[in-house]
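Translate sequence into structure tokens.
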Amino acid sequence: MERRVARWAWLGLWIAAACGGEDEGSGPVDTEPQERGARALGSLDWRPCGDLLCAEVMVPLDPAAPDGEQLPIALNRRAADPTRNSLGVLMFNPGGPGGSGKAFVAAAEALDGFPFEVIGFDPRGVGDSGGLDCELMSDAVARFAAEGAAGAIEVFRGEGQRCRDAVGPLFDHLSTNAVVADIEQLRIALGVEQLSFYGISYGTRIGTAYAQRYPERVRALVLDSPVPPSADYSQLVEAQFDALLAAHQALLSSCEQGLLACPADSAALFGRLLQAFAQAGQREGFLSLWARSLRSPPGRDFLLRLLRETASVTQEQLDLVLTMARMMDAAPPPMETDPEVTEATNVTVNCSDSSVEPPSASEADAVMAAYAQRSELFAPLALPAIVCSGWPAARDPLADVSLRLATPPLILAGVADTLTPLPMAEELHLAIPGSALLISEHYGHGVISFGGECAGVALGRYLGGLELPPDGTVCPAP
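Result follows.
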């Protein structure tokens, strides 16, 4: 949390400078939410919720049936600093699919004092907007090992149908196209002609889709660590898998070269860890933990501690697995502003949005065999590549990006991002004429999370004064 809050704290100064600083003759700032609630923003009935304000907007459950059943979309608000020239509404989506924008904005306290009305919202199927309450407990890995792709697909089909039965009609209306229609209803309810949008990861898909449908309603668009311009879920999984392999090899190579604080023979220690957890029946859990931890600097530091702990334990000590289990319990939690993704929503949205048909069972076996050829070790983590073959999502494919804005978007990307690798940002950049791509040399997912001051200054100037950095700007790691 501290790292990201620090970014926002000085970013606010750049935005303030870009929009001319404080208004002359402004009165004192009263930060009590009850007082802020007296300042109208649209037709919404704002109420205090903690230190913020909250409201709901009713939208059609099925956007094609505006007079049918309605769904509440929940949002919260950090009111703009009244001593500054207001820049209107800045809306956030932290990614997923399945991440809560309300939780993101509530955790990012340094957004207080911005010259924006900062809005977080829970997309349909998330959190307070009809969040899907059907936790997945899949044994797809075991079924895949025993029966191949057909077994895993059968698991996905059963899990999905159970979730669909529990959720009801909303399950068939969770696509990004539906979320875009909801955002337009939010804009109307907020009473603004335009809004600025900041999307992270999957949030960039929402932002580009909204801007493509309503280009005149977008003041500024920031696309941080974007997904590709084509909503091809299989392509996304493949890119993430390749990035995982590269990050894994880079860690072991950096250890061998003495670039990281690793014990000797780190590759052998990794093998020893894998064997210990396999003997304890936790092989896939360990590999999943390893892959997740490679996504960020705190996670990578945890893996280095894990290797050092392994190096200090003799082969004869029978408590090896227990020692490692204690280390797993000590793994760093997600940053407070990172989204806790609703897994069922994540799968449903990705399958609904996908622009290509999922593979058949026979094709799925070939898909998984190709992953095994690249890495037999990590191949089971690529099972999302065939999840849509069984998941009963109502397909609502998202159109490829074709976008022109009066103020083109700012695209931010990191060179060592395992979730949205840099080529995705480069592909999106080529698809949006006039956009500016800023490349940050940090490690991890999310420029706003792990980028340095150079990226923050460029971001502040864009949000504050609509000033794009030179295309291809490269910012050093902090």
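Note: The mean pLDDT is 86.
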